[in-house]
User: Fold these one by one.
Assistant:
Number 1:
Amino acid sequence: MKKIFVCAFGAFLMVGSLAGFSGCGEKTASRPHYSIAGEYFPDTRKLTAEMQVTVPNLTGKTLESLSFELWANAYREGAKYAPISPLYRDAAYYDGESFGGISVSSVEGAAGFQVCGEDENILSVSLSEPLDPEKSVTLGMNFEVTLAKVNHRLGAGEHNVTLANFYPTLCAAGENGFLEYVYASNGDPFVSDCADFDVTLTFPSEYEAAYSGEGSISRVSGKKTLSAKTERARDVAFVLGKGLKKIEASAEGKQVEYFYFGDDDPETALKAAADSLSYFSDAFGDYLYPKYTVVETDFPYGGMEYSALSMIAPDLKGSDVAAVVAHETAHQWWYSMVGNNQFETPWLDEGLAEYSSALFLEEYPEYGVNYRDFIHRSENGYRTYFSVKSQLAGDKDTNMNRPLTSYSGEYEYRNLAYDKGVILFDRVRSVTGDKKFFAGLRRYFEENSGRIASPEDLISCFKSGNVGELIRSFTDGKCVI
Ligand SMILES: [Zn+2]
């Protein structure tokens, strides 16, 4: 283990004088590839893992270092950016204060590494040779994750062990360097390019496992080992639970499964998952992954999306079940297949996922939600928020293109990213009519699948200056609602 250099904060470094030097590695791949072999030990709440990651340089620039997000460090004692807002803290930390974190003990194939970033959130790896464009480098890492006792994306929860965002995650490539973000308790700070994953995870045999991707489970002497594979995914996630049960359906030729532990009406969530997968496939374009998994897990609010897997909270009631499942399923299109910068422009996937849920519920009235009621709720919620903000706080800034860490809290984030997003897409649909509206969304999906799209990419897909002006008037905070 060497820690030899000052963190470069992931800047791409141009190495013009090294023309003709062959960068490390020979293989050129179109996406990063992660091989992770880990074992979870419940007694100590620790996951130990070896990871091999192959990173192709698709930036067009020579790289001297790579940056990885260490999302697990947000759960450590003393973290500056807490993973959970004060509103949900008590519900999440069910057994009082608890901490976790990640420790990277070695990085093979590199000149050195350092944990840095504003909140120990970045693993900066100094390459042993400059990495030229179109060349790849393979690194080996050993790391150990300690889980906090917390009902959240990564934690030993009251019922399940939830393993998401647990491994060092290559930062997405931006125009001016790697995109490095701190954790944010409002929204989802995760921004990743698509990658391929091969994961083996060993755990005590009394656990059942829900996981993204295709896989199989073998048993050896009191333990199970899951081997799972996912391609073209933003991430990989697992839920382990002693009481997890599974029911299955199919939609569009894809396997749909629902894991649950306390849901007394599991058929509703499964049906909503299958119905929404069918609806969005028809409305926007084909679902890419071979199966889709929804899992009820320990989560203090709503749900959470990962590639080919959605988590939903255990306390959902009535029509909220279908609304949340549809919202998370829509994220397969607007997050997983079409990515966006969720940290800088969270409305783009959240507003679209929430509006897609409204579209689904409009098409499937049996779930008991009226489309116009859905829109009115968003309008009323947003107007109340704006009234409070402008009259009491004297602040009329409703700009939607703002980073997660700039929101004052859950209330502002909810109203600007979700409710105002829903109103935005409802108004666009009113202006374009259904035919052009859905054609625009289909185009946005086709042209941006596998990419990280921007608001301007969305605007361009409607091929209308009026729509562009309308969307910008919302995002710039200039329109009156
Ligand atoms: Zn969402």
Number 2:
Amino acid sequence: MASLIGKTAVVTGGGQGIGRACVQALAQAGARVAVLDLSIDSAAATLALLTHPERHLALACNVADSQAVAASFAAVDQAFGRLDILVNNAGTGTGPHDGTTEMYERMAARNAQLARGEAPTVHVEQAIFMEDDGWRSVLAVNLDGAFYCARAALRLMARDGTAGSIINMASSAVQTGEGPLHYVTSKAALVGMTRALAREVASRGIRVNAVAPGPTDTPLMRSIPAEWIASLAKAVPLGRLARPDEIAASVLYLASDESSYVTGSVLVNNGGACFF
Ligand SMILES: NC(=O)c1ccc[n+]([C@@H]2O[C@H](COP(=O)([O-])OP(=O)(O)OC[C@H]3O[C@@H](n4cnc5c(N)ncnc54)[C@H](O)[C@@H]3O)[C@@H](O)[C@H]2O)c1
């Protein structure tokens, strides 16, 4: 197993789901981990699952708020004194006024037509119902937040000459286009950021990669309509959703020296659902 003894990490959105599994994997490999989440209670609940919670840190942080991100990384620096690993995992698929309600209503109506054997006339649409603030709310977390955290991490790594590793949580939706419009757009942009940043910081020995999970059994996944989950699972050749710890295993690989020559890559972990 990869060893991260002596290393420190930040995991955003570590209060549940894939982020929580990443925290557990990194801590088990020996890293000290700072768990950032909107909710301090869920971040603390993740810490409570670890063998030595007192070695780690839980912080409330909205990654879409650049000042909150700067303050959180200052707290991490104060507690740990260095940063080796950033997992940009915090993400959301929906926000207010983003057309999700209308899209789900139309999806149900179209599925009902199909179930009755009728030719479908209902269009499943989101863009025409999406307001500016709905669009921004998802980009603000998934893309701006990842940038704010990457920048804060790089400032610490550059200061100390740390050959760190940054891992961005993308999605196989980048390849399939299946998912909410702003979500898919944000994840595709995150892959672009991964590649540009990987080139930019390679001379410092800092690596930047992305993981592209397929449908994974988390609270986020369970918030979408059951029919949609069923159709996603059916399209996976391995025949099931991923477990969060299966995605965390890819993150652990990219965080560790096992992947010392890997940068700018997208590690696809999706049960064969689609290929990059
Ligand atoms: N579950 C899947 O099928 C799947 C597939 C592909 C990619 N992903 C990506 O993996 C990541 C984790 O997904 P998940 O399914 O575990 O989601 P989840 O909703 O179960 O957990 C996400 C966590 O991020 C936190 N969070 C949300 N907005 C935040 C913000 N602004 N600042 C800080 N924390 C915030 C939430 O509080 C939550 O604890 C996301 O980036 C998601 O897009 C998930």
